[in-house]
Design a protein that fits this description.
Strand content: 15-25%
Bound molecules: iron/sulfur cluster
Domain Radical SAM core: 170-400
CATH topology of the largest domain: pyruvate-formate lyase- activating enzyme
Number of strands: 17
Largest sheet: 7 strands, mixed
CATH superfamily of the largest domain: tm_1862 like domain
Structural class: alpha/beta
Cofactor: [4Fe-4S] cluster
Helix content: 40-55%
Shape: globular
Number of helices: 19
Distance between the termini: 59 Å
Oligomer: single chain
Mean pLDDT: 96
Keywords: Iron, Iron-sulfur, Metal-binding, S-adenosyl-L-methionine
Radius of gyration: 25 Å
InterPro entries: BchE-like, Cobalamin-bd, Cobalamin-bd_sf, DUF4080, Elp3/MiaA/NifB-like_rSAM, Methyltransferase_Class_B, rSAM, rSAM_horseshoe
CATH architecture of the largest domain: Alpha-Beta Horseshoe
Low-confidence stretches: none
Number of domains: 3
Strand order of the largest sheet: 2-1-3-4-5-6-7
GO molecular function: 4 iron, 4 sulfur cluster binding; catalytic activity; cobalamin binding; metal ion binding
Length: 498
């Protein structure tokens, strides 16, 4: 049997760890198992031709919010081209309503729900005719015109999953994903990880052996997929210390952490890490108490803000913080406060995200309670709720655009540190005014080189009669960001955007 495991990643630098796990789980029962990864940016014809001409008996797609629409189209076309091919869908985007997915997509043959490492080999055996489909855990399938859904498999023991990078090379031009634990102890109502509260983790010795493999190969970045890496302080300390002891001077390790679980002992250890060894992603989401209670986030906001501030002050790790617009009880005015509270921390990256009402989450079940209106197709992003109008959500998206261009991408540090407080009551008001200017002038209609962003900011200051005041700071940032020749060229062209 020739069976392909495939997906459309959101970018080339991303890779899919789940496919590697399934390959390792299924290769003993299916000789002709293969993996191919594409991206959502590959042309439909390119991927379609690859799949049609390779003569597969079955193609299995890994489905997420960023690829589900394209995969459904591709799978249907593939079935039309080769009706004998069997199509299986798996992944979080089809796991919570497998029967509905089969009803809505008559050209799809199977949906595999739940964790696939145990059930995928069972499906392979059933496909080969060795067992019947009702023996494959989590499988949703058709038989005699009816749809059947088998009970989902028990969560797998992570120790039974082999380390994937012994079989698959660490691709140097891609982010390397690694998972040392599954599940999250917290219950945030908008997050599918909250549905798996039983944390399963690999023993520390196994984790260290796996990490040594990355260190020995000098890979650039390892991104832990663990949902809250520091849920267990002793384990966290042990792994941080190991990485600091074995540091190769090159590899960076990215962790999603809960900031209010950091204590003095952890800060003491982190303070000794090489600059660039660690990168932390911290979901703050909101600083409004009613909002956090409504989404069942139990974090202590004051402690979170204090810890993030301390991490930023240490100055040796890249700090990324997240806010989510569209949560309950957070109107435009309250969101402004959350934004200002978080902006004041001075993290390297502030991601302003928008609530997605994901399948399987309890906030989606509560949509009526909060008057949610959201996109009917993935990524199910908020359009409005009883606290934010659609126009306000769009205004926040405009703010997100300029925040990304000017704050997150870097290159404006001196200018922003002065201008934000000198020209606006709060940081939110500054970015709101900049977004208003940017969109009113129509700059959103084309992409801009970095140098044009300096010109736009200069013109924005000029619109307030303060262009000359900030010119020296803009020049300073420009000279620090661009090379000598580019700066010379910039000054030849001048400050007017053409
Ligand atoms: S948002 Fe983070 S802390 Fe909350 S349930 Fe999801 S993974 Fe856990």
């Amino acid at each position: 049997m020739k069976v392909l495991l495939t997906t459309l990643n959101s970018k080339y630098v991303h890779s899919n760890l789940a496919l590697k796990y399934l390959y390792l789980a299924g290769k003993h029962v299916c000789d002709g198992l293969d993996i191919k990864e594409y991206t959502i940016n590959n042309s439909r014809d390119y991927v379609f031709t690859e799949l049609v001409t390779a003569d597969y008996d079955a193609v299995c797609f890994s489905c997420y919010i960023w690829n589900i629409e394209k995969i459904l189209e591709l799978a249907a076309d593939l079935k039309k081209a080769r009706p004998q091919i069997q199509i299986l869908l798996g992944g979080p985007e089809v796991s919570y309503d497998g029967e509905q997915v089969l009803r809505d997509n008559p050209l799809v043959d199977f949906v595999l729900t739940g964790e696939g490492e145990g059930s995928f080999p069972q499906w392979c055996r059933a496909l080969a005719g060795d067992v019947s489909f009702d023996q494959a855990a989590g499988l949703v399938y058709r038989s005699h015109g009816r749809i059947y859904a088998n009970p989902v498999a028990e969560p797998v023991n992570l120790l039974q999953i082999p380390f994937p990078y012994e079989t698959f090379p660490c691709e140097t031009d891609r982010v390397i994903y690694y998972e040392s634990s599954r599940g999250c102890p917290f219950g945030c109502s908008y997050c599918i990880s909250s549905l798996d509260k039983r944390i399963r983790s690999l023993p520390e010795e196994r984790v260290k052996a796996d990490l040594r493999c990355f260190l020995d190969q000098n890979v650039k970045q390892v991104k832990f997929l663990d949902r809250t890496f520091n849920w267990d302080k002793a384990r966290t300390l042990e792994i941080f210390r190991f990485l600091m002891d074995q540091d190769n001077g090159v590899t960076n390790f990215h962790f999603e952490i809960c900031a209010d679980l950091l204590d003095d002992e952890l800060f003491l250890v982190l303070g000794q890490a090489r600059e660039g060894l660690f990168q932390f992603e911290i979901g703050i989401q909101s600083t409004n108490g009613d909002t956090l209670s409504a989404v069942r986030r139990s974090s202590d906001t004051a402690a979170v803000l204090a810890s993030v501030g301390r991490l930023v002050l240490l100055g040796n790790s890249h700090i990324h913080v997240d806010l989510i617009a569209g949560l309950p009880y957070e109107d435009y005015r309250i969101f402004r406060k959350s934004f200002n509270d978080v902006y004041a921390l001075g993290a390297d990256n502030l991601q302003l995200g928008f609530l997605k009402l994901l399948k399987g989450t309890s906030i989606r079940a509560d949509e009526k309670k909060y008057g949610y209106v959201y996109m009917s197709k993935a990524p199910y992003q908020i359009i409005s709720n009883q606290f934010l109008t659609a126009e306000e959500v769009c205004r926040l998206k405009q703010i997100e655009t300029v925040l990304d261009l000017y704050y997150n991408r870097g290159g404006f540090a001196h200018t922003l540190s002065e201008a934000v407080s000198a020209t606006a009551e709060t940081p939110f008001d500054f970015y709101e005014a900049l977004a208003g200017y940017y969109y009113a002038e129509g700059f959103q209609h084309r992409s801009h080189k970095k140098e044009d962003l300096y010109r736009i900011l200069f013109q924005f200051f000029g619109s307030m009669g303060r262009g000359e005041q900030f010119l020296p700071l803009l020049e300073r940032d420009l000279k620090q960001t661009m090379n000598f020749d580019a700066v010379k060229k910039f000054f030849r062209k001048g400050w007017t955007i053409l």
